[in-house]
Amino acid sequence: MRRMFAQGQRLRAEFGDDAVVDLALGQPLDEPLPEVRDALLAAASERGRARFGYMPNLGFPEVRERVAAHMGVEGLERESIILTGGAGAAVVLALRAFVDVGDEVVGITPYFGEYPAYCNTIGATFVPAAPSDDGGLDLEAIAAALTPRTRALVLNTPCNPSGHVVDESEMAALAEVLEEHAPVAGGPVLLIVDEVYHRLVYPPARRVDPFALHPRTVLARSFSKDLGLAGERIGYLALHPALATPEIGRALEVCMRAIGFVNAPATMQRMLLHLPVWQVDTLPYVERRDHAVACAREAGLDLGVPDGALYLWARSPWDDTLDFVQTLARRRVLVAPGVGFGMPSHLRICFTAPRERLEEAMEIVSGLVSSAPRSALG
Ligand SMILES: Cc1ncc(COP(=O)(O)O)c(C=O)c1O
After folding, report:
1. pTM of the complete model beyond 0.85
2. CATH number at residue 75
3. What is the pLDDT of the chain when averaged over all its residues?
4. What are the pocket residues of ligand 1 if the criterion is a CB atom closer than 6 Å to any ligand atom?
5. Using CB atoms within 10 A as the burial measure, which of 20, 86, 103, 210 is most buried?
6. Residue 49 and residue 79 in one domain
7. Residue at 338 is within a domain
8. Spacing, Cα 196 to ligand 1 middle (Å)
9. pLDDT > 50? residue 378
């Protein structure tokens, strides 16, 4: 992914911004809204004792309170909320706090490509489990991936890259599998739900509350995607109320310092207080998705309709996906190869690019699909 990012920068520097259609990175639809910029300015203008200094590691108490109230989960108080530098940091913090060196962490293919590195960072092993044929959870594959060393399972819903949104029956069945495994693992398995796209779920799909089904659960969230603030690094880890004990709170404080982040950026935390509403209008995303799916299918790509997140997840039309991706890149269209998500047969296309850019890109894709002697589709 990062190689594609660097390649995009090189091509833009050489040929100009307009000469490259970058569909590789997960960029949100728009620049931050004016309300977000106003809130940021208001936060940066605040004065007060140690306003810009060190603070409690887990975040400003009033911001933690606001997040807790926003979540609307019964019994969930500010002790459940830890402000972090994005959802990535929230996942790493959870791993650092709850998983030991030598433990195993199960994830579902296709997975966010940083998970193996997050696990390596804390001395744990990432163990991928295959999905079902329709891209959902394969409970048998998950059960087979669990071992006595399994300490956590990381679940990303909506999923980057597939767009799959875990439904009620899948979540309930997963909770049951984890429950059954507890005696084998010597204790309950932690469910880390990466919900960085939780506000980007498209009807009729809807979010299921994992807290209601598995008490040993933490949620990793951020404002990177829905508020367009990925570079500003603000998110949070939310603990199930049953996990929000003073002992775990102290452990998390130590982990924040041990990781070296110390706390989430002060001004970004305060910005959240100045922003009255944190909702996102999903309609423009649905329109963009539907348009992108239609263009991609017309270009000859084989793909489903994503229920959430920002991506099309298509089977590569060539046997050699990397060759296809590189050939596209030479025509200045960047997409992400599936190998980065543990599924080399596929490729990921971010659908948030402007419509006309996406159409241009799909015309080039179409030319490659139909002209390629190596096409797996003949
Ligand atoms: C599934 C998933 N988790 C975590 C992240 C990282 O999010 P953040 O920028 O909030 O750290 C991303 C970013 O693309 C993602 O797709």
Report:
1. yes
2. 3.40.640.10
3. 94
4. 26, 86-88, 112, 156, 160, 194, 196, 222, 224, 230, 235
5. 86
6. yes
7. yes
8. 6
9. no
